[in-house]
Specification:
This protein is of the alpha+beta class. Helix content is 30%, strand content 22%. The termini are far apart.
């Protein structure tokens, strides 16, 4: 048998070319005629995406910083063309607040301990300095009173008194003076022992809004002047 080991190899068999020399697959040139338009469109989309992202981020910051609760004391009379900013407090709201707190402080079933308890109960609506002032005044009033133990005290607006602009004036955008004309009636065992009309000039200021402790956002901070008796109707000549 002849040895075919020296037989020439098949020249038609291609040797494997290196991977680096292989030609990459390319699309025909006709498929590249819109390349510039596509690139411009992609660029426009990217710019639009950045602008949209910035708007969303800005909205998120505004939403985070926006207060969860807006305190609106009373809506204006829009039918009459009245306008009011959110931070503006109408005069009658200030007056009604001062009247409510003073009534709650001085209305008690036992003059001996009731007023001090009421001052503590409504401490969120009264400044600490005014709380001390009220306690000192109450102590002096009890020393001058005919009786305090078992005496019930009722405080209400004087008969015929209605709110008007003369009863309140503004010291600053967040501070007012309110003149309260109140009738103070003390009873012992159902008998009236004191019936006096007293004017209380109290100072009202804006306070930090607290939906739990002070949802009104106002507080009493002191007497603008000493309370004065308008017309005494009792036989006891004690001062207001």
């Amino acid at each position: 048998m002849k040895n075919n080991s020296n037989a020439p190899k098949n020249s038609n068999v291609d040797k494997a070319e290196p991977r680096s020399k292989r030609k990459r697959f390319q699309l025909p040139k006709k498929h590249y005629r819109y390349t510039d338009e596509v690139n411009e469109h992609i660029k426009t989309l990217r710019i639009g995406g950045l602008i949209l992202s910035a708007v969303i981020a800005f909205g998120g910051v505004c939403y985070y910083r926006f207060p969860s609760t807006i305190l609106l004391y009373n809506t204006p009379n829009v039918t009459g063309g009245e306008t009011r900013t959110i931070e503006q407090v109408p005069a009658f709201s200030v007056y009604s607040f001062a009247l409510y707190v003073m009534q709650q402080v001085y209305n008690t079933g036992d003059l001996d301990t009731g007023i001090d308890k009421n001052i503590i109960a409504y401490s969120s609506f009264i400044s600490p300095e005014f709380q001390q002032q009220l306690k000192i005044k109450n102590k002096i009033d009890k020393q001058k009173a005919i009786a305090v133990k078992g005496v019930a005290q009722e405080v209400r607006e004087m008969s015929g008194v209605r709110f008007n602009d003369d009863q309140i004036f503004q010291l600053s955008p967040s501070k007012w003076v309110v003149y309260l004309d109140l009738e103070v009636v003390d009873r012992l065992n159902g008998q009236i022992i004191k019936d006096a009309d007293i004017r209380y000039p109290v100072v009202v200021e804006k306070a930090d809004f607290n939906p739990t402790l002070n949802p009104i956002g106002l507080r009493l901070t002191g007497f603008y002047q000493d309370p004065t008796r308008i017309n005494s109707k009792d036989t006891n000549n004690e001062n207001a």
